[in-house]
Automatic annotation (TrEMBL):
Protein name listed in UniProt: N-(5'-phosphoribosyl)anthranilate isomerase
Gene expressing this chain: trpF
Species assigned in the record: Melghirimyces profundicolus
GO molecular function annotations of the record: phosphoribosylanthranilate isomerase activity
Listed Basic and acidic residues bias regions: 195-204
Domain of life: Bacteria
């Protein structure tokens, strides 16, 4: 199995160019208002235009309205829509049926979802388990207690939904996560930055660690 690798929080077209020669699967852009990595749809469109072939684009939203997603969707070529808030199954259904992109629904380790997996199952393509720090959801740079993962994996994988993991991952801890929990995908942002900017060397090392694991295990 190839572990899906998403590198999130690209802020400039130069960040996209840094991915040349890096075997990642997706790059994410933040459309959550007021966060340090937030980009406009126009900026995101120019980032996507510079992504190396084969790297998919992901748009990250947090409790958006339908119109807010549409405003981005109409301007930016997105392959994945990542929902980082408390979006309900009905909202995921609407996006899936009307936009057709792949939907990644985020849940937070140790926080129980108001809806069971079966309510989401038909409308989402992957689940991402992330950390929450105070009121901040996403991009926290903090790991969560990975011993919560087996239960989450069992819940979602029973419905055929792949589970990805985020929250404080970096080149030096991702191998331990993969070895101990074998998630279908991993995602990182803070852990591949230096002074708030995407660091090509860290992104490359992160992805190389994952691919080394893939060769050894799968
Ligand atoms: O990255 C952000 O700034 C962000 C802000 C608001 C919602 C989501 C955000 N990031 C989404 C991601 O997919 C991150 O990669 C994920 O949360 C992990 O972040 P980190 O702990 O910094 O690696």
């Amino acid at each position: 199995m190839r572990t899906f690798v998403k590198l999130c929080g690209l802020q400039t077209p130069e960040d996209a160019e840094k991915l040349e020669g890096i075997d990642a699967d997706a790059a994410g852009m933040i459309f959550v208002p007021g966060r340090k990595r937030t980009v406009s749809p126009e900026r995101a469109a120019s980032i996507v235009s510079r992504l190396p072939a084969g790297i998919r684009s992901a748009g990250v939203f947090l409790n958006p309205t339908r119109d807010e997603v549409l405003r981005v969707w109409d301007r930016v070529e997105l392959d994945l829509i990542q929902l980082h808030g408390l979006e309900e199954p009905e909202f995921c259904r609407w996006l899936k049926e009307n936009l057709g992109g792949r939907i990644v629904k985020v849940f937070f380790a140790g926080k129980k979802s108001a809806f069971p997996p079966e309510a989401y199952a038909r409308w989402i393509d992957a689940v991402l388990i992330d950390s929450v720090a105070g009121t901040d959801r996403g991009g926290t740079g903090k790991t969560f207690a990975w011993n919560l993962l087996p239960e989450e994996q069992k819940r979602w994988e029973a419905w055929g939904i792949p589970v990805w993991v985020a929250g404080g991952l970096h080149p030096d801890n991702v191998n331990r996560l993969l070895t101990e929990h074998l998630p279908h995908g991993v995602d990182t942002s803070s852990g591949v930055e230096t002074n708030g900017e995407k660091d090509r060397d860290k992104m490359k090392r992160f992805v190389e660690r994952v691919r080394r694991h893939d060769r050894r295990v799968h």
